[in-house]
Specification:
The chain is an alpha+beta fold. It contains seven helices and ten strands. The chain has a ten-stranded mixed beta sheet with strand order 1-3-2-10-4-9-8-7-6-5. The longest helix is centred in the N-terminal third of the chain and has 18 residues, at about 1-20. It is globular. The protein starts with a helix and ends with a strand.
Amino acid sequence: MIQDFFSTLNAVKKVLAADFACEENDFEKYGITFRLAEERPGRRQFPYREKSLAMVSMGRGIIACCSRGRMEWAEAKLSKLTRDEVYGAPAISMMDAYVKQDGQFMAGPNLKHICTKSIFQPFKPSDDIEITLVEDVKSLGLYGDKRFPNSLGHGAYPKTPFMVAAVAKCGGQIAGIAAAWADCDVMWQIGVDILPEYRKRGIGKATVSAVTEYLLEHGIIPYYSTNLSNTASRATAAALGFKPAWVELYSREIQS
């Protein structure tokens, strides 16, 4: 079991090294390692930002990856901070104020979880909940539906298409959806939304469980993202066997 998890973690590390333009052994260093942002093969296919500022940690130090015009500022302001200070409110507020001049804000910190076959704990809902696995996610006709911002709301970037969804119905009505999209070849991200009137019935766990099982059967690493403050979502991940793997903080555009 331990070998299975850590071999998967090493595969994740390769992807993150491409994302943050660093070396894999940088994640083993303490302190802050600064890296110049660049597009590398194997990275998750999120929109590449010409102006970027991002932090990632797998538990030891931090990789600070930023665009060339922001490197001097980042080194001057962050180099003497500890890992915990970088993810603390004063530092995040300082970074947020800095990127706002470019119409951005700092998103996160997000805690990322991964699951493997050896630690997966599948969950089945009560008999009154019907779960259907859908591979043709477009056929649902729900892209952009404001009821499902976490599962179907990221706009289906052309490079990160939705791959599979688990739809929960209660009494013939949609109660919730979990979906996975292909951020890269080896890692797919899972998002979930449960309508308010159907919460606390295990539907979130059941839909995420169905998608996780599908990904594991197809040799894909499932990963699940939560805000640090979202204890309910973190509990869902933990109940299914997901384990925390890394923390991200990054700049992104303010939506008008």
